[in-house]
Specification:
Blueprint lengths: L1 E5 L3 E10 L2 E11 L7 H12 L5 E6 L5 E7 L7 H16 L4 E8 L7 E8 L1 H13 L3 E7 H10 L9 E6 L4 E7 L2 E8 L3 H12 L3 H10 L10 H25 L9 E5 L8 H9 L3 E3 L18 H10 L12 H99 L5 E7 H4 L14 E4 L8 E4 L8 H15 L7 E8 L5 H11 L4 E12 L6 H5 L5 E10 L3
Parallel strand pairs: 1-4, 4-8, 9-12, 12-13
Antiparallel strand pairs: 1-2, 2-3, 5-7, 6-7, 9-10, 10-11, 14-17, 15-16, 17-19, 18-19
Length: about 575
C-alpha cells in the first residue's frame, strides 16, 4: 500500500507491505514544499509522476481539523450494535450541520469496564470530503482510502508501543496544526486537532532574529531550542507555553469525557517535524508532568523502521489503516469509491479466476466434444454391426425358407427313389394275383392315401393340401400362404417343421390298392387276398373297405346300356422290408 501524508511544508510517501502479520516499509520518499508556494499541486503532481505513483491508488490523510470525533460507550445490557448507536448520533449531527455527514464507527471492549464497549465515530462534511478528493485528483492521485490524520497517527504508533494498560497520548506536531490521539492498546479513545504547530516556533525565531520565515525555519533546526544554552530560548519557550495551553484545553475535553480515574494519560509520544525542536521533549515533560518520549524511543520500533520513526509515522499509519492492519479502522472514503478500490484491488484475481474459469469451461467443452465424438463413433459401429447382423439374420431366414421349400419339393422324388423298386415289385405281385374280371384303379403308399392332418390349436402357420391322383405314388403338395399377424420367416419356419413332421416315412412298407369288381360277393377279391398272403414278401393283407357302386339313374343313354352294379374295394398290403 502506498500512503501519502501531505502537509503544509512537506509531502511524505511510504510503501508498506505485510509480511505475514508484520508491516514493513519497503520505500520512503519526502518532498519539501517552499513556504511561498501558492500552487503546491503542480509540484506534488510532478513529484508523483516522477515517483511513478500517478493514477495509482494511495491512502490519503484528512487533516484532523476537518473531521469531527464523537466518543461514547455501549452498556452491557444494550442490544444495539455500534452502527445503530452511531446512526442516532449522526442523525443529531446532521440536524445541527444541516447536511448529511460522512461517518464511520469503530468499537472495542474496554479493559476497565466489564461488559462495556467503547466506540469512537469519525465524521466529516460532504463538502470537505469532496474537496479532499478534488485535491487528490489535482495531485494526480487516486484515493484508496481517506483516513483522518489522528486515526492514522494512533495506528502508526500504537503498533510499536508495546503492552500498556493505561491510555497513551500520541501527538503529531505539524507545521500549522497538531494531531492528538489518545488510546489504549486495543482501541482509540479520543482524537482531536489543535490549530498550533511548528510554524509558531518558526515565527518566534523570525521575530527574535529578524530573519525571513524560510531562513528562520532553517535556523530553528540548527542552533535554536528550548534549553538555556540554545539560541532563541526565551521566544521559543513562550511559543511552547502557548502550545501547552492549547494542548491542555484539548486534554480538558478528554478528561471531561473520560472522568474515571483509570483513564488519565500515562505517557506522551511525540512525532512530526515540529517535534524535532531541541529540548521540546524535556520542556513538555516538565510542563505537563508526564513522561514524554519520541516515536523513535518506543520499545517496539524495529531497526528497519527506526530511520523513518518520528517523520513518517502518520504516513505509515495511513498505510496500516488502509491495509486494515491497524488497531482501529475509521474510513471516510465514500462507498462508491470503496467499491472501486475493492474492484481494482481484486481485479487481477478476478481476471485470473475468469481466465481459469474460461479455461476450465473450454477444457470441459473440448472434453465433451471428444467424448461425444467417441460415443457417436462407437454408436455408429454398433449400428453398423446391428445392420450386418440383421442382414445375416435375414439371409439365414431366406435360406431356411429355401431349404423348407427344397425339402418339400424333394419329397416326391425321395419317395420315388426309396419306394420305387419295392412298389414295382408289389404292383407286379398285385397284377399277377388280380382276377381278370377285376381292375385296379389306384395303387399308392398308405400315407399318401390317408394323409395325417397337422395338429394345431390355433391357425395353421403353413397348412398343406393334398390332391389324390389315381394311379400315382406321391402327393402334389401346395404351400398355403402364412397366417396373418406373424412374420413370413416365422411362418415359413413353422411350415417347414410341420411339413417335416407330416412327410411320408421313406421306409414305409404299407400300400393301398383300390379297384372295382363285378362280383358283388367280393369272391374274386378274397381269392386275390389269399393269393397275396402266400407270397413270402407280404406280411399282411387286409380288406380295408368296400362300397357298392350302383348304376346311374336319370340318364337315359346310360340306362339303355344296362350297366351292371360294381363293388369298389380297398386293400391294404404290408410288405416285409429286408
Amino acid at each position: 500500500m502506498i500512503a501519502l501524508d501531505i502537509g503544509a511544508r512537506s509531502v511524505r510517501a511510504v510503501w508498506v507491505t505485510l509480511r505475514g502479520s508484520a508491516p514493513t516499509v519497503t520505500r520512503a520518499e519526502n518532498l519539501a514544499l517552499p513556504l511561498d508556494e501558492e500552487e503546491p499541486h503542480k509540484l506534488i503532481s510532478a513529484w508523483a509522476d516522477k515517483l511513478g505513483i500517478a493514477k495509482h491508488f494511495c491512502a490519503i490523510a484528512l487533516p484532523g481539523s476537518q473531521a469531527v470525533f464523537q466518543s461514547g460507550r455501549i452498556m452491557h445490557n444494550d442490544p444495539r450494535t455500534p452502527e445503530q448507536v452511531a446512526a442516532i448520533d449522526i442523525a443529531q449531527f446532521n440536524e445541527m450541520a444541516g447536511d448529511e455527514m460522512t461517518h464511520d464507527v469503530a468499537a472495542f471492549e474496554s479493559p476497565f469496564e466489564m461488559g462495556v464497549r467503547r466506540y469512537i465515530m469519525s465524521m466529516a462534511r460532504p463538502a470537505v470530503i469532496t474537496a479532499a478528493l478534488q485535491e487528490a485528483r489535482l495531485n494526480h492521485l487516486r484515493p484508496a482510502d481517506l483516513v483522518a490524520a489522528p486515526v492514522a497517527l494512533y495506528n502508526g504508533l500504537d503498533v510499536f508501543s508495546g503492552d500498556h494498560e493505561e491510555p497513551w497520548c500520541y501527538v503529531g506536531i505539524g507545521h500549522t496544526q497538531t494531531e492528538v490521539a489518545v488510546g489504549l492498546k486495543n482501541g482509540l479513545l479520543f482524537a482531536r486537532s489543535i490549530p498550533v504547530g511548528g510554524k509558531q516556533f518558526t515565527d518566534a525565531v523570525a521575530q527574535a532574529t529578524g530573519l525571513p520565515p524560510a531562513q528562520a525555519e532553517v535556523r530553528k533546526h540548527v542552533d535554536c531550542g528550548l534549553r538555556e544554552t540554545d539560541a532563541c530560548c526565551e521566544p521559543l519557550r513562550a511559543a511552547a507555553d502557548r502550545w501547552v495551553s492549547q494542548f491542555n484545553a484539548c486534554m480538558g475535553v478528554y478528561r471531561s469525557q473520560f472522568q474515571d480515574r483509570k483513564f488519565p494519560v500515562a505517557r506522551l509520544v511525540l512525532t512530526g517535524g515540529g517535534a524535532q525542536l531541541k529540548g521540546l521533549k524535556e520542556y513538555l515533560a516538565a510542563k505537563l508532568n508526564l513522561p514524554v518520549v519520541s516515536a523513535a524511543e518506543l520499545p517496539g520500533v524495529p531497526a528497519s523502521y527506526r530511520p523513518y520513526a518520528g517523520v513518517y509515522d502518520t504516513a505509515f499509519g495511513l498505510a496500516l489503516t488502509a491495509l486494515r492492519a491497524g488497531t482501529t479502522y475509521l474510513s471516510l472514503l465514500p462507498g462508491d469509491l470503496k467499491d472501486e478500490v475493492v474492484f481494482r484491488a481484486k481485479k487481477p484475481w478476478w481476471l485470473a479466476a475468469a481466465v481459469f474459469l474460461l479455461g476450465a469451461m473450454a477444457l470441459y467443452s473440448a472434453t465433451g466434444v471428444v467424448l461425444l465424438r467417441r460415443d457417436n463413433a462407437q454408436l455408429d459401429e454398433v449400428r453398423d454391426l446391428l445392420r450386418r447382423r440383421e442382414q445375416v439374420d435375414k439371409r439365414i431366414q431366406e435360406l431356411k425358407l429355401l431349404g423348407a421349400h427344397t425339402l418339400t419339393n424333394s419329397v416326391p422324388l425321395s419317395n420315388l427313389l426309396m419306394n420305387g423298386p419295392l412298389a414295382r415289385e408289389v404292383l407286379s405281385l398285385v397284377a399277377s394275383t388280380v382276377d381278370p374280371n377285376d381292375w385296379i384303379t389306384l395303387f399308392c403308399d398308405e400315407k399318401i392315401y390317408t394323409p395325417k392332418e397337422q395338429e394345431s390349436g390355433t391357425q395353421k402357420t403353413a397348412p398343406q393340401t393334398a390332391a389324390r391322383n389315381p394311379f400315382s405314388l406321391f402327393r402334389t403338395l401346395r404351400q398355403a400362404p402364412p397366417a396373418t399377424g406373424k412374420p413370413a420367416a416365422t411362418a415359413a419356419a413353422g411350415s417347414a417343421a410341420a411339413q417335416k413332421k407330416d412327410l411320408p416315412d421313406p421306409l414305409a412298407s404299407v400300400f393301398i390298392v383300390e379297384g372295382y369288381t363285378p362280383n358283388v360277393s367280393l369272391k374274386s377279391v378274397r381269392e386275390m387276398i389269399e393269393r397275396l398272403k402266400t407270397s413270402p414278401e407280404i406280411a399282411r393283407v387286409d380288406l380295408r373297405s368296400d362300397d357298392q357302386v350302383f348304376a346311374p339313374t336319370g340318364i337315359p343313354e346310360l340306362e339303355t346300356e344296362k350297366i351292371p352294379n360294381f363293388r369298389r374295394f380297398v386293400i391294404e398290403i404290408e410288405v416285409k422290408r429286408l
